[in-house]
Amino acid sequence: MIKCKLFILAIVFISVVSCDNNRVFDEYQTLPASVWKKDKTLTFVIPKLDSLQPYNLFINIRNNDDYEYSNLFLISEMKFPNGKIIKDTLEYQMAAPNGSWLGTGFSDLKESKLWYKEQVKFLEDGDYEISIQHAMRKNGEVYGVDELLGITEVGFRIEFAINH
Question: Which is one Pfam family of this protein (predicted)?
Answer without folding.
Answer: GldH_lipo
